[in-house]
Amino acid sequence: MNTNASKSVRDVIAGHLDAVPRSGIRDFFEIVSTMQDVISLGIGEPDFDTPWHIREASIFALERGVTSYTSNFGLLKLRRAIAAYVDRMFGLRYSPEHEVLVTVGVSEALDIAIRAICNPGDEIMYHEPCYVSYGPLIQFAHGVPVAVPTSIENEFRLTRDALEAHVTPKTKALILNYPNNPTGAALTQADAQAIAEFVIDHDLLLITDEIYAELSYDHEHISAASFPNMRERTIFLHGFSKAWAMTGFRVGYACAPPELTDAMMKIHQYTMLCAPILSQEAALEALDEPENDIAGMKSEYQKRRNYLLRSFQEMGLSCFEPRGAFYAFPSVRETGLSSKDFALRLLEEEKVACVPGTAFGPSGEGFVRCSYATAFDALKEAIKRTAAFLKRL
Amino acid sequence: MDELLKILKNNALESPENIAKMLNVSADEVRERIADYEKRGVIKGYQAIVNEDVLDIDRVTALIEVKVNPEREGGFNHVASRISKFPEVQSIYLVSGDFDLLLFVVGRDLKQVAFFVSEKLATIDGVQGTATHFMLKTYKHHGVLMESQDEYERLKVSP
Fold first, then answer.
1. Model confidence over A296-328: pLDDT tens digits?
2. Is the minimum CB–CB distance between B1 and chain A shorter than 8 Å?
């Protein structure tokens, strides 16, 4: 028997992976999955089914035998529809032939965007708390992740001051994600403009992940990419998962000037080859009447958000008003518990799952993420249980 | 449509307190607005959506097409109003197409509905002819699917 077996197996794992932590969400999921009758506010995906006409269109495509590869860029008719939609919704013009790349969700788009621009040792900034993959993807690309903390004092909006405190001559790019997962924060026009000016002044690239753009409440979403001179230095990322409730279809896209698109394409063509054709057909159908599909779900999210905020208020949990996405990010500081202990005890004692803010970076300490992409009856029960839990503390 | 009405159309049993939180108003305001809708006849009543197929109730529903000779004064309204008054008639609509009135009629059994059609409906002045379709199975009623499908279970925690 070779007693050194485990050591040698570990030795074959790539060294730079040691620095990459496991996702905190994954850890929490392991605990939740062992329990029965849990009401979950921990889900980062819509509880709605994909609108039927979109599902029906992909069934029809399957029946027609649409099961082949597509162009590496994605179906041209889909890229045309995407370019038209991005122009209409964000005021950004991209050529469907040379500047739109259909990807396997925004996750892949983020990965190839970062790998396309990052040399070893380049610093890439992103604001935090943030989606779990930004830091690790930068590490996979041998870059240096630079987290810029945002705080409740600014309602988790990214300020120029915070950016200036973290920029160095090695900074290559900034990743932006508003409306934000996990905080629900959104940028004002002035915020977006200040960020755009910062990016230009320091000659950086902007990677902007606007997956929650359609889910903006009581205000118009504004993209930092839409300011003068930003287009040529921006990789714009979007997809269908959230607003159309299409997470499992895994289809997103990246829009960028031709040189950047070509660079991303090099990675995409040798790794993914193309996004699944059935998902592309579904995405095309989703762009047929997007406003119709989204309006009903958005109005439902907004009611749930209001309900959750007022309920938190009543039970004495302070929470700033989320202006986008489908997350509330209440503070648990006054309970004296850490984010993780709060989430663990709420799960064990009341079987309500929420995600500790620290899963989204150290600056998430003192907060928990509650998703209101949860059926209203479940939301009511979760609130009842959480109130009972707080009363006992 | 007003958000309050949308909520009630979806679930009329939702409490004024919960609705108040959703709409960011007070519970008293919700109560007042509902009372006002009731008074103005916007809200005509509240009913449960019952899946009768599960209950094994011996009762039949028929969809009846009715051709009507419109009157010089009053058009279809007079005849429709007379037909509406029969308690057997659950719903009645004026429609475009090959016939004029569309009725939903319930009865204890086939015989009773047939009796209603031949003795009461067909004999009304102005009714030219009828065609009766008995309903065999309900798939969807008032926007609600009657056969519940197995719920697909999502992950409990996801990024």
1. 999 999 999 999 999 999 999 999 999 999 999
2. no
- Domain residues of chain A, as ranges? 8-49+292-392, 52-289
Q: Is the same domain home to B69 and B123?
A: yes
Q: B35: domain CATH number?
A: 1.10.10
Alpha-carbon distance A155 to nearest alpha carbon in chain B (angstroms): 20
Indicate whether B150 belongs to any domain.
Answer: no
Paired with A208 in beta bridges are A176, A236
**Angle at Cα A81 formed by Cα A80 and Cα A83, nearest 5°?**
65
Q: Is residue B114 part of a domain?
A: yes
CATH fold group of domain A52-289: Aspartate Aminotransferase; domain 2 (3.40.640)
Chain centroid to Cα A5, Å, comes to 39
Please report residues of B whose CB lies closer than 8 A to that of A380: 18
Instruction: Find the CB nearest B157 among A304, A353, A380.
Output: A353
Strand partners, A124: A145, A173
Does the pTM of the predicted model rise above 0.80? yes
CA distance A346 to chain B (A): 14
The whole-angstrom distance between B154's CA and the closest CA on chain A is 8
Provide the domain count of chain B.
2
Confirm or reject contact between A333 and chain B (CB < 8 A).
no
Q: Which residues contact A1 (CB under 8 A, 6 or more apart)?
A: none
* One-letter amino acid for residue A355 of the chain: V
Same domain, B80 and B120: yes
State residue B60 phi and psi, 5-degree precision: -120, 150
pLDDT tens, N- to C-terminus, chain B (159 residues) = 899 999 999 999 999 999 999 999 999 999 999 999 999 999 999 999 988 888 888 889 999 999 999 888 888 999 999 999 999 999 999 999 999 999 999 999 999 999 999 999 999 999 999 999 999 998 998 888 888 777 777 788 887
Whole-angstrom Cα distance, residue A271 to residue A14? 19
Statement to judge: residues B22 and B70 lie in one domain: no
What fold, for A8-49+292-392?
Answer: Aspartate Aminotransferase, domain 1 (3.90.1150)
C-alpha pair distances (Å), A239 with each of A196, A248, B124: 22, 12, 61
For residue B31, is it within any domain? yes
Closest Cβ opposite residue B154 in set A38, A43, A353: A43
Between chain A and chain B, the number of residue pairs with CB atoms below 8 A apart is 56
pLDDT (tens digit per residue) in A202-219: 999 999 999 999 999 999
Which candidate, A216, A207, A296, A219, places its Cα nearest to that of A252?
A207
Predicted pLDDT of residue A3: 52
